[in-house]
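Cont'd.
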Amino acid sequence: MQIFDKKNALIHCLSLLKEKNKHIGFVPTMGVLHKGHQSLVEKSIENNDFTVVSIFVNPTQFNKEEDLKKYPKTLEADLALLKNVGCDFVFIPSVEEIYDQHVVSKSYFFDGIENQMEGEYRTGHFDGVATIVQAFFEIIKPNTSYFGEKDFQQLQVVKKLAEIENLPVDVIGCPIFRENDGLAMSSRNVRLTKEQRAEVPFIYQTLKKAVSLTKIKSVNEIYEFVKNEFATTSLDLEYFTIAEETTLEEVLEINFDEKTRAFIAVNAGTIRLIDNLSI
Ligand code: PAF
């Protein structure tokens, strides 16, 4: 496994492989790798000749300085995991290497899908994500790139980014990995206290109950149900939304012929967790 921190060295190395028509798979990450990331890397290794993983905590996608500062880092363990699964290249650039002296995002318009849910509660978040993902796509020029469905809205934004910016990459969504008690795997989970960790499986349990209620209750009744459930806990419900999968527009009535999903964001103290489930 080769590790790069300079983009030109990586570009040079990958260009030699592309001359030989080798397929490059790419998995962008912010580190603190877990089984969910591992599954993306394994999928890339299985379906491409070479796999690149980036580890980069992207400052422009954080709207709270505190969240960025507290973002966990486990580089040694991440590299061990990547080596173990057979990753070929790891890209760990500095902020300067990517942004030079201008640590700002570009402004994008993704037909409005960037404005709901995460976009509404984390202003500028998707501009930051799209800026870094586009930068990585332009450096690595992958044939295929893999994203987890836990960040379902991010996945749809990246698909739109590739379409709008004419980036020749297949963007593939991969299923959410869960702990045994249902909690969606996330790098943020390591920051949970013991008490919070014991309480947060409630998020997925409630999501599942809400989805099963779609057969017998109206969307408004389900919203009310979820709100009341969280009122009995110390978890702070930020949003629960039922939306169409591609446009991410909220639905007022569920049409079972269309693909819809339930989305949730919850704060456990200062730790923000998201999850979603197909209906
Ligand atoms: O999902 C993440 O970890 C990040 O948003 C990504 C895609 C690596 C961009 O920084």
